[in-house]
Amino acid sequence: MTAIGVLGLGAMGTAIAHRLLGAGHELSVWNRTPGRDEELVAAGARRAGSPADAVRRAEVVITMVTDPPALEHVLLGTDGAASAVPREATLIDMSTVGPTAIASVVDRLAPVAVLDAPVLGSVPSVESGTLVILVGGERAVFDQRAEILSLLGTPIYVGPSGSGAWLKLVNNAAGTAALVAVGELLALTDRAEIDLDVALDSLAAGPLASLIERWRPRLTGEEHSSYFRLALARKDLALAFEEARRTGTELTVAEAAAARCDQAIEVGLGDHDFGAIVPFLRR
To answer: Which residues of 65-104 are buried (b: 16+ CB within 10 A; e: fewer)?
Structure first.
């Protein structure tokens, strides 16, 4: 049994906490917005009064928050975790915050070990233990904590600190750009009066096969669940643009996709699943 502090109880953080608690680990949980921990506390987790309180006895601290400012607040704000986390503990940040934020955390939490471990997948993936976890950091620290991460899915060591954060931004930008492209092209097949299923079958026979297979129920309107909000997808694009500017890299396709996301958000789709960009563009 490992003592774990989980900071951030949005949909993903809550699912992660439930999974770890169900595996028999000792959990302390904290969330900036009160009330989201009730089921976890009823199941045996300890409610912490602050991030610092949540991590005082922790061997592992997991953060799952929205963006770099939220991570800064949780770790380094008033009663932040950095003031109380044991030196021998490991911080595992599973948020999507980008490599610059991770580098700052590594510098300021030293000598506490830090792994950047953002995930590919959503709440059902956590519940079934099928997340893909992209982990950057020291290999020895990864090896030490791989067993815990394996409860949530498949942890993949991808390189030095920040590597996981880089690859998560790349994955999310690629996925959003691909969905925008599919939405625009389905608008074209609609106007050519080609049946949607026929159009999707043709796309599934080509290089977009994996994307079409994964998203088909949402593309056809059979699935309406929201696991990854469009506003968060757009936030992740903004993080990718920040890193691109820092490295002198052009992301013109992703910028075009961001403009289309902005249009959808302006008409009220920000809290919808990011797959909603496709029916929006078809309209």
So the answer is: bbbbebbbebbbbeebbbebbeeebbbbbbbbbbbebbeb
The reply to whether CATH 1.10.1040.10 applies to domain 166-282 is: yes
Residue 267 is encoded by which pair of tokens? 């008409």
Q: The tokens of 238 are what?
A: 């903004």
Sign of CA dihedral 163, 168, 169, 171: positive
- For tokens 């950047």, name the residue: 116
157 confidence band (pLDDT: 50, 70, 90) = very high
Tell me what the mean pLDDT of segment 10-30 comes to: 97
pLDDT band at 218 (very low <50, low <70, confident <90, very high): confident
In which region does residue 225 sit, left (phi positive, over 0), alpha (psi from -120 to 50) or beta (all else)? beta
Give the pLDDT of residue 82: 96
Cis-peptide into 160, omega within 30 deg:
no
User: What is the model's pTM?
Assistant: 0.93
Mean pLDDT, residues 59-72 taken together: 97
Secondary structure (3-state) at 227: coil
The per-residue pLDDT for 34 is 85
Q: Which residue has the tokens 């609609």?
A: 190
Inter-CA distances, 98 with 6, 29, 106, Å: 20, 24, 13
Alpha-carbon torsion 149, 154, 156, 162, what sign? negative
The domain locations on the chain are 3-161, 166-282
Architecture of the 3-161 domain: 3-Layer(aba) Sandwich (3.40)
Which pLDDT score is estimated for 189? Answer: 97
